[in-house]
Amino acid sequence: MPPLMPFLTDYWHLCLVAAVIGLIALDYANRFIGPALTLKTSLNRVHAQLIELIAQSPSQSIDLAQLKSEVMTSPPLQHAWQQYASTLQPQWQAADAGPLGAARQRVSHLSRAFFGHMGQTTGGGRIDLSNIEQLAENDPQLAQVWREYSQALESLQQLEASAATMAGKWQASSHADLYFTEQALVDTPLQSNFYKHIPGILTGVGIIGTFTGLIAGLIGFDVSYPERVQAELSQLVQTVGHAFLVSALAITLAMVFTWIEKSVLTGRYRQVEELQQALDTLFTPQGGMQSVERLTLATEMQAALSYKILNQLRSSATGSPQR
How far is 28 from 36, CA to CA, in rounded Å? Predict the structure, then answer.
């Protein structure tokens, strides 16, 4: 009989525990370490492409569809990008930047002039926006200011629409860390919530191996024949020694796996943070004042549109054009 067969026959329980430890280590390498290295390469590539876009963005427009298809290639990245892209909008320019800024300044100036004159007309009392048409009809100067204000708003709307269709830079309404999260990009793909318990499982398997070896050695220990006690005792010591060896191997692997897991996850979390910073640099999240400014302008546009609709309805009803 080959020398290996007696060993397997006598220490089958320890071989079984060692085989379980080996399968756990193989699964850990294939389903955690391998995907983690693939994720590292993917995140490095995405970050490098975003850095390249940041360097080119002042002189080159950003194609969001191309960015999704060529940069955000993995399913988790595409899902996060789909949610994040819904927050992007053409960058809101400064009040004095180019034709669009000049149009905004003109609208703001005419708005102050119109509502200031309306306040004088009403004697400083409460202004009822539903009576704008009547006030404008009774005051030629107010009607003239209102016409100029409406024309300025129309011009601004056209400029805004043109800027939206030819936007070279985009701006996010929220930070990237709300969508490109560590949970979505790292923990879920790597199943870290499961594999973080592997060290504990290995320790438990090692303890089971130790007790299995002790039980097997004690069961086989026979003191009925004094002349065989020394041989039985030697066999017991060998069995216990092998059991502790398997347990030590399991505990050592548990420590190594813990170090690997923490190192891998820390590295991937750092890459996700770099990705978030790159996106926030590329699509600078807008501040609260910009949102208030856009809301104010939208309200003014809505007021002008309501007046025009009301004027057209009155003209249709009376059959004569109104100012």
Answer: 11
Q: Of 145, 98, 93, give the one whose Cα is nearest residue 119.
A: 145
Of 68, 18, 32, 42, residue with least CA distance to 242:
18
Tell me the DSSP string of 156-171. HHHHHHHHHHT-SSEE
Question: What are the backbone angles phi and psi of residue 298, rounded to the nearest 5°?
Answer: -65, -35
Residue 5 buriedness (CB in 10 A; 0-12 / 13-18 / 19+) = exposed
Paired tokens of 68: 């999704």
CA distances from 168 to 60, 92, 98, 175 (A): 7, 12, 15, 20
How far CA 115 is from CA of 127, 132, 135, in Å, comes to: 9, 10, 11
DSSP of 183-204: IIIIIHHHTHHHHTTHHHHHHH
pLDDT band per the 50, 70, 90 thresholds, residue 164: very low
**What pTM was computed for the model?**
0.62
Report phi then psi at 222, rounded to 5. Answer: -120, 120
Say which residue the tokens 């930047």 belong to.
97
**Predicted confidence (pLDDT) per residue in 206-232, tens digit:** 888 778 777 777 776 666 666 666 776
